[in-house]
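Sequence in, structure out. First:
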Amino acid sequence: MEERELQKPHHVELQKPHHVELQIITTSTSTTTSLTNLDVATEKTLSKLSILTRFHAGYFRISLSLCGQALLWKTLSEPTTDAHALRPIIRMVPAAAFVMLWSLALFTLVALCLLYAVRCLFRFRSVRAEFAHHVGMNYLFAPWISWLLLLQSTPFLRPNTKSYLLLCWLFSLPILVLDVKIYGQWFTKGKKFLSMVANPTSQITVIANFVGARAAAQMGWRETAVCMFSVGIAHYLVLFVTLYQRFLGSDSLPAMIRPVFFLFFAAPSMACLAWDSISSSFDTSCKMLFFLSLFLFASLVSRPALFRRSMRQFSVAWWAYSFPLTVLALAATKYSQEVKAEMANLLMLLLSVLSVLVTLILMVFTALKPNDLLPHDDPFWCPNLIRKA
């Protein structure tokens, strides 16, 4: 009896009340829930910051394409005396359609600029790394090219007004500053520096000068236009020879962004348009640049295997197809206006329709697959450079 009485209290002491167990389980569950909510909130914050890290200046390809399309539609809708031209057909399209296209280009460009400004604020080390990247630094010209193209196609401002003049200077000055920075590196850096960093996207730097020269010529600033054109054409000749010879480093372009090869015919096409505005006539020099563009275009489209790997999955690099085609169509429009031949008008029609179709297809893909615009394997994302910065 005594042993049973001694064991009983010991047995009761080992048992815990049910309300204590319930309290422990409830506390543990609430703690786990709070930790889970904290993890979810942290993951959302990191995800937003990751988007800023993966976003880069290469996304201004979209604004380049849309602003180029706005300029193409404005050029085609201008009055003409050629009965065989495409322009009378374009003028049948309601004016509201062009205003909507221009507004879409403006909205896209403003959104991209704001997003990049936020990236500069919260991910400045990534911006510095991009500036040191042999591909990324070239797209720093893209927003200013887009603004100049949008300004030239605006239906709300007329050239030679004070606001137009101010905006033209505002968008051209960053191009000159970047020229001094990048061209200065090419000129003063070590031996074979250009041959190591040159790639097809380097042609955006000369395209920016040609766009600025064209804008200045349309404003009546002929000396400024000639200045920017001479800087652009001099570096284009050096760059074209460097890329043509394929030095060591020229083949370092990832397969994912091979659509930028289309920039090969965008540069002479824009040079053709710039010189047409400077000389006020589509002379022999313009025709030579236009024929060079056609040759380079034919050389690329006859080699679809070059772009096969880049076409396996949709990415923002696909937008690199649109802008060069649009610029080539613009050059074909000026050429057909000069020669007034049926073959020239047919060429203008084919290139313009192709440019519009490619842009529409890219807009549809972008709307249907927005998640593919920020891939984790984007070659622009260079964490090694970020650590160094």
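Second:
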Amino acid sequence: MTQFQKDYDAKRSQAAIDRVRGLIGDNRLALADRIAELYDKYIPLDRDVLLREALMASVASLTTPITGKPDKRRIVAVCGRSGAGKTTAVAKHVENIKAMQSYIDDDGVEVHPVIFIDNPSPSTPRLAAIAGLEALGHEPRDEIRENEAWRLFRRLLKVHKVRWVVIDEAQHAIEEATIREAKVIGNAFKTLTQMRDWPVRLILIGVPPLASFLARKQLYNRRTVVPFDSIDADGSTEVIRSVLETIVREHARMEIRIDLEEPGASRAEDDDDPDPKKKYEFLKRLMHACDAEFGSVVQMIRAAVEVAILAEREHVTVEDFMKTYASFSGCRPSKNVFKADNWEELEPSTALLRDDDRAWEEARLKSKGKSATKYGVRPQ
């Protein structure tokens, strides 16, 4: 894709956006802009320190390359479950590292040192290379072969002066790949990081089984892993409380009308000093609703604030979270995590399932000679 085509597409896209903005009215537009500002904020955690250190080490490895030896600075791998906030964190740190920013070279050409690739599924070696070529703006011919695609990808990385390749959903390299395909992709990644005339660095983002892929011999000594672990329901309440207050009070400039220390229905009326494990029930419900993933918690808080903003209120309530969870999960009103007494027993990931869905799940498992241990959860 030429720069002219990119500029033309950008102008068309902006024109379409401007048309919609002109149709919704000034009041609604102001609310939309306020919501957009809310979602543009970033909340760092301790793990962000580790991620930035790993990325800065990746930068340093290009200034003082170690040749002929494995080097753990060549690949940075960010591993964690869906909703942990991996992709957002990587994008934010890349945006703030000067060496990774776009620039104009001596020929007056704009250079983008970092490219982002969404790894296809299934990720065969050929399809993975084609995804890389497309990220560079190149459209390979339909009949291009696997080895040709990788050779062209390596050459174009040098032509475009790309130094970092970010591969999202990197676990696809192993999920449905054969042993041979996974090995080829692993070797291709290794080759990218040790090209003598133009070595690049990889940033891999993915959920399990990415860790299994990275345990391969050709990658093990060349990668630094930054885990994005799930949050602890009992040990992270203060962190989640701080995040909630930051988003609502600082980012949205609104009031929280929720008793964050409420111990819940389990507290006896004459219990003046309840068990700490019974306190902060709202925060624990919030973590449970988001499957204990930090990125999902942030997303749900922002969405609840959005509900309040659209209602033209300057405060956030439990009802805003109830509405948000209902829209996210598709649950029945009686099964809402922010309302039900048995909220700890509810499965947010299967809240959308109805009787017909469950019957289909059970029939499908039985047809394969398996027994369902829990509706909506496939046996491992």
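Remark: The beta strands are 75-80, 103-104, 110-111, 114-118, 164-168, 201-206, 223-228, 255-256, 315-316.
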